[in-house]
Design brief:
Layout: H1 22-29, E1 39-42, H2 48-55, E2 60-63, E3 76-82, H3 91-104, E4 105-112, H4 118-121, E5 125-127, E6 130-132, E7 138-139, H5 144-155, E8 160-163, E9 166-170, H6 173-184, H7 200-208, H8 210-223, H9 236-242, H10 248-253, H11 258-278, H12 292-302, H13 305-318, H14 322-334, E10 340-342, E11 346-350, H15 359-370, E12 380-384, E13 389-395, E14 406-413, E15 418-423
Helix pairs in contact: 6-11, 8-11, 11-13, 11-15, 12-13
Length: about 450
């Protein structure tokens, strides 16, 4: 007589944590856990994330069917569904769980799953559309593409990958566009190069208002253009001094070098070109409306939103020209000193210098990133010169004093839009980093 299989033990998947889980670490890195938003952890397990978030001053609550079944499921600004979809063996319940978490998300849902390496799955027996582990738990492993499409098809909303197995789903399309644009804006350090004012009277006025003038000009260099009043409220005293907001820019400009302003404008236009190019890459069309700040950017740098999108589309199509991509990649190395060149095969550079590359290279790498996550999740980027591939490498201790060992490799085939993950720690002989970290241009 065949004995019925033991029921799946879901409670055994709840881990104890002394640090934030990877989804919450991503939210922290992106500035979402600043205390201004409420957080709800849907399927919070033993509640370690909640304890840590509360200690950080975050208004956080959670629910779990096993450990906190009586806790209210409250709507919140940010809702986390962390590694829950993997452990639900019933596909109908799995889909219902995703929709229930999304219904509570007032601003954004963050969803995370375990990605499926063949080495993982071959260790266990098949069970439904997943596997039964040795601890009698269920695991449904996903590929990155399968995960993203599952979330998008279930919620009928856009999923933004930010790390392998982690994506964001925004309630408001404008907030999503601001997030995507911010990801493409490189943080640059400007020196506030000064020049002498024309008269002693002007110099005296400038000295009295130096902090306010500096704050205004720092915002100018960040935007690459004159800000409107709502973009720089700290400069309102200058408007009262000069009689109107429109006079501030010309008056403040006399105290600073025009060369630095020109450099900031060029850099900002490049950032925006990368953003508008990548907005055409994903399966879902770009939104017909843009946030007010991006509309101002588009008017100033491109002459309007339609022209900005057209410029982005041309730039995106340019990445299909292999010769141009190779030429620009080699230019980054030979003229800008970026990365380590491996003959005619590839250029490898640290993620921190991606923003210094030519726009076409940034767009090319950005297309690969759009398929799996955020550049902050890796250490090195390898642009292949003989194929339409980009490889992302993550090391166990890239910045440490010991030789770094390869932990994960993500190879993206742009021609086929496929993502291949290789996990090295514990499954393959670890590969040491070739050369020293400074050779790759880390900042």
């Amino acid at each position: 007589m065949i004995q019925p299989a033991e029921p799946i033990a879901r409670h055994r998947t709840a881990l104890r944590r002394s640090t934030l889980s990877s989804p919450f670490r991503c939210l922290l890195d992106f500035g979402f856990l600043d205390g201004r938003r409420t957080v709800f952890d849907y399927g919070c397990g033993r509640g370690d994330d909640l304890r840590l978030l509360t200690g950080m001053g975050v208004d956080a609550a959670g629910w779990d069917p096993i450990y906190r079944p009586n806790s209210p499921r409250r709507p919140s600004d940010l809702v986390n569904l962390g590694f829950v979809l993997n452990v639900v063996e019933d596909p109908v319940e799995r889909q219902r769980t995703l929709k229930a978490a999304w219904a509570l998300a007032q601003e954004m849902l963050i969803v995370s799953v375990m990605l499926g390496y063949k080495a993982h799955q071959q260790r266990f027996s098949a069970h439904g559309d997943g596997v039964r582990t040795q601890r009698n738990t269920f695991q449904k492993y996903y590929s990155q593409g399968e995960f993203r499409h599952y979330v998008e098809d279930t919620l009928d909303a856009n999923a933004v990958p930010i790390a392998p197995g982690i994506c964001l789903v925004f309630r408001d399309a404008m907030n999503e566009q601001l997030f995507l644009a911010t990801r493409q804006q490189v943080r640059r350090e400007w020196r506030l190069l000064r020049r002498d004012p024309g008269t002693e009277a002007v110099a005296a006025a400038a000295e009295r208002h130096r902090p306010t003038i500096n704050a205004y000009w720092e915002r100018v260099l960040e935007l690459g253009r004159p800000p409107v009043a709502e973009e720089c409220p700290e400069a309102q005293p200058l408007a009262r001094l000069l009689g109107s907001w429109r006079r501030i820019h010309d008056w403040a400009a006399q105290f600073f070098s025009p060369d630095e302003l020109e450099a900031s404008a060029i850099a900002r236009q490049e950032d925006l070109l990368v953003y508008f190019a990548l907005s055409h890459f994903k399966r879902r069309c770009a939104y017909s409306k843009l946030p007010a700040r991006l509309l101002r950017d588009a008017r100033f740098f491109f002459g309007g939103a339609a022209k900005a999108r057209a410029a982005g589309k041309r730039a995106l199509f340019a990445v299909a020209d292999r010769d141009r991509v190779v030429d620009d990649t080699l230019f980054c190395h030979r003229e800008l000193g970026i990365g380590k060149l491996n003959g005619v095969h590839n250029l490898t550079f640290h993620c921190s210098v991606l923003g210094e590359c030519l726009p076409l290279v940034r767009i090319y790498v950005g297309c690969a990133l759009a398929l799996f996550g955020d550049v902050g999740a890796v250490d090195l980027i390898k642009v292949h010169l003989q194929s339409s591939k980009v490889t992302f490498l993550q090391y166990d201790d890239f910045h440490g004093g010991q030789p770094a060992l390869l932990a994960e490799r993500i190879k993206v085939d742009l021609a086929r839009q496929r993502v291949e993950f290789s996990d090295y720690l514990g499954y393959r002989p670890p590969q040491p980093l070739e050369g020293d970290p400074p050779e790759y241009g880390q900042r």
